[in-house]
């Protein structure tokens, strides 16, 4: 029994040195001896094995053979070894079940078109940032605020008591008091700061009655369509805050200023195409312009869009607000 036990222990401890094996054997026989060896003291050392999950089996392709008829167990109403599985037609229900709805191919849909449409949504990230947005919308960027807005800010009639202190408190509330983090996310404090500033503006309702004829809405599904040359573009998504009112905003640029921009040369993005980051679809509604509730008295609006996916937005040229 001793030679057989020695070979088993030596094979189990093969990764270790001979000196370690001899020490373990001496300790082993000092306590139990050869005659007192029990089967439960046998042990083995093995390497842990890991295996990948096998891929799912591909269904076998049935090849029809002309002249041969496949015999299945459909008529017997139970499984029969050796017989083929019957092929039953799909059950067409007389009612619509959304759980088992199968959409038709894109080319057979009613709104399918041959001309593509480029869609911009909240997950889109413009590679060139603001220059690419200017090229897509054919817009000229004018630095600074409009003079009408600056004159309205400097007018004492449009200021509230302790304006500087209350604005600073609104900023502190958004940056420090409304969070437990050391540095809050820009998406969180921007929304909080905007609501605080809107609340401060509401205190001027006694001198500006038009402030009371407005409404704020969140998470409205909006869409807009425009053309640039032969290409069709659409913007879809949910807004962060929709400011609707009965009175329109004053015109920022007159007709003469708009006419002067006709000779403006747009910045070239060559060799990058302006539509490189937009989703290209062929199933769409051509005239989709939903900027609020249809037939609502508060038809004029100002839109605020906050990026809900920060990792999709370009860090150097963030696009957050659209009017």
UniProtKB/TrEMBL annotation:
Top-level taxon in the UniProt lineage: Eukaryota
GO cellular component, one term: mitochondrion
InterPro entries found in the cross-reference section: mtLSU_mL37
Name used for this protein in its record: 39S ribosomal protein L37, mitochondrial
